[in-house]
Amino acid sequence: MVLADLGKRINGAVNSALSNTQDDYATAVDSMLKGIVTALLEADVNISLVSKLRNNIKSKLMESKGKSINNVQTKKLIQKTVFDELCNLVDCHEKEPFKPKKKKTNVIMFVGLQGSGKTTSCTKLAVYYAKRGFKVGLVCADTFRAGAFDQLKQNAIKARIPFFGSYTETDPVKVAEEGITKFKKEKFEVIIVDTSGRHRQEQELFREMIEISRVVKPHQTIMVLDASIGQAAEQQSKAFKESSDFGAIILTKMDGHAKGGGAISAVAATNTPIIFIGTGEHIHDFESFSPKSFVSKLLGIGDIESLFEQIQTVSNKEDTQAMIENIQQGKFTLADFKKQMQTIMKMGPLSNIAQMIPGMGNMMNQVGEEETSKSMKKMVYVLDSMTKEELNSDGRVFIDQPSRLVRVARGSGCSVFDVEMILMQQQMMANMAQSAKAAKQGGGRGMPGM
Ligand code: GDP
């Protein structure tokens, strides 16, 4: 079962409990939990994690006073509890993730089995840091596989990242050492070392990881894990943890038919956070991972934090500054919404972005990329037809003066319903901005969009 299906199934279980008018509270909760548990198990999540989640949700919901499910407070509690517990499932509660320091040498070593997406992810991470102003270099310490250096070289050239490797040296430890020395001398700030993912014997591979690690002294070791390998992820990550004690995971191929549940279990088994996910073969198919964002996307309720991170990397600073200031104050105007739509259309591929906007992810799943792209264009036409005053408002002017709706609809060649839909989406984003602000102030977790 792919992750989009998992999200749908969990949503389905929650929604059917919420619309249940016949059963009493306890029975409705039980039947919802049964649906959630089955969906998680079918997505390959480890059974003991699922049963812990089940017990946590049940005890939290039974503690509450809810007698009937048809009460707004009870509904909110159910949604929030399910959301929080799903976040806990993918959160290892690491306090401070590693952040490279400017003007210092930061060495990052990659480990993982061949084919997991290691070389691709090395380049993606290099690009990620280069975009954020770091001087980044790539070292190929995979001397086992013929062609490994060529692959890294091609990726690096495409991404315009300096690289180091050797066609003749057979000792990976030596290559790693030379690469680090060279880049250190040239004052590189982030040096990423790619290692081999295969050996004649598994034990030799792990020994090699320990040797390289001893020489390169990484500030962070990252294990790359293919999301599609299911339950095997847990064993694989435990084995790597013993030899290379990685501090973070990059989960690749989340775009494909990944069940993802095995990888979720790997997080818990090794108590290590996922820091990025790979969502395609292209360099930009790479997103930073946060439990809250992941679960928001899984449940199709949008993810304002990732969206802004993406927007910041592709649009100019002044453009986004005003929007960020607004968000920090818990505001989100129609003008912010318009800027966002325009940037998103430059960002592509749409499938990665749509999941972050409330309502869009579901639309994408139902009608496909072309239709979603058309609707986004329509949104921009509608927003183009608004006055400056309207754009800078929170949308309430349209409620106060409905004639504005008709004018904008006519001006954009769309229906009044289209305009109303856009106002509704902007309102959802504004609510998310509000709850993000509240969560920051209160230190707790809000539940965006719900
Ligand atoms: P390595 O052997 O671990 O270095 O793996 P590679 O980086 O060579 O990747 C193996 C294959 O997986 C290549 O065809 C990559 O293009 C592909 N790949 C890597 N990451 C992703 C991803 O996030 N999504 C998809 N669809 N393919 C990926």
Describe the structure.
Belongs to the GTP-binding SRP family. SRP54 subfamily. One of its GO terms (cellular component) is cytosol. Fungal signal recognition particle consists of a 7S RNA molecule (scR1) and at least six protein subunits: srp72, srp68, srp54, sec65, srp21 and srp14. It is found in: Cytoplasm; Endoplasmic reticulum. It catalyses: GTP + H2O = GDP + phosphate + H(+). This protein is an alpha/beta fold. It has three domains: 3-90, SRP54, nucleotide-binding domain (Four Helix Bundle (Hemerythrin (Met), subunit A), Up-down Bundle); 106-297, Rossmann fold (3-Layer(aba) Sandwich); 300-442, Signal recognition particle, SRP54 subunit, M-domain (434 Repressor (Amino-terminal Domain)). Helices cover 60% and strands 9% of the residues. It is built from 20 helices and eight strands. It has an eight-stranded mixed β-sheet with strand order 3-2-4-1-5-6-7-8, with helices on both faces. Helix 9 packs parallel to helix 10 (261-270). The longest helix has 27 residues, at 416-442. It is globular, with a radius of gyration of 24 Å. Mean pLDDT is 82; it is low at 442-450. Guanosine-5'-diphosphate binds next to helix 5.
